[in-house]
Specification:
This protein has 155 residues and is mainly beta. It folds into two domains: 1-33, no CATH class; 36-129, Immunoglobulin-like. It is built from two helices and nine strands; from the N terminus they run ααβββββββββ. The model has no long low-confidence stretch (mean pLDDT 79).
């Protein structure tokens, strides 16, 4: 894979750091993405999502969900088993993992639940009132104000 240097983009733009970071992250990711553990991302509302991660064999104490900046990190470490088991076939993988999801601005984690071998993480986008679009009322200026300059009459 080709490597692109985005350093000139950083010094030639102001306020577009997130776009440059996103492009840098896309270009530096490995071609072979890990496929363990499998996960689903479903849309549950206009501004709500749910990430479901298959975590068969892990207890809730062995899982961790962490939010750092705009990254959601789901990790698992299997506790050491005191009794050494002898398996004839071992098809359930309980190896440690760390899965990262990059979240968009203003996306918040509202909760996480572990049930039936699945870890469900609920997300919602909460845009602050100051950033929401708002309608500005247009008023027509009275004709008598046309002859005013900074509050003083000119005629």
């Amino acid at each position: 894979m080709r490597s692109f240097d985005l350093a000139p983009l950083y010094r030639a733009t102001v306020g577009f750091d997130q776009i440059a970071d996103l492009m840098d992250r896309v270009f530096t990711n490995d071609v072979a993405q890990p496929s363990y553990p499998p996960y689903n991302i479903e849309k549950t509302g206009d501004t709500a999502w749910r990430i479901s991660v298959a975590v068969a064999g892990f207890t809730a104490d062995e899982l961790s969900v962490e939010l750092k900046e705009n990254a959601l990190i789901v990790a698992a470490r299997k506790a050491e088993d005191e009794t050494q088991r002898s398996y004839l076939h071992r098809g359930i993988a309980t190896r440690a993992f760390e899965r990262r999801f990059t979240l968009a601005d203003h996306v918040k984690v509202t909760g996480a639940a572990h049930e039936n071998g699945m870890l469900h993480i609920d997300l919602v986008r909460e845009v602050p009132e100051a950033l929401k679009p708002r309608r500005i009322a247009i008023s027509s200026a009275p004709a008598s104000d046309a002859n005013l300059v900074e509050g003083e009459k000119i005629n």
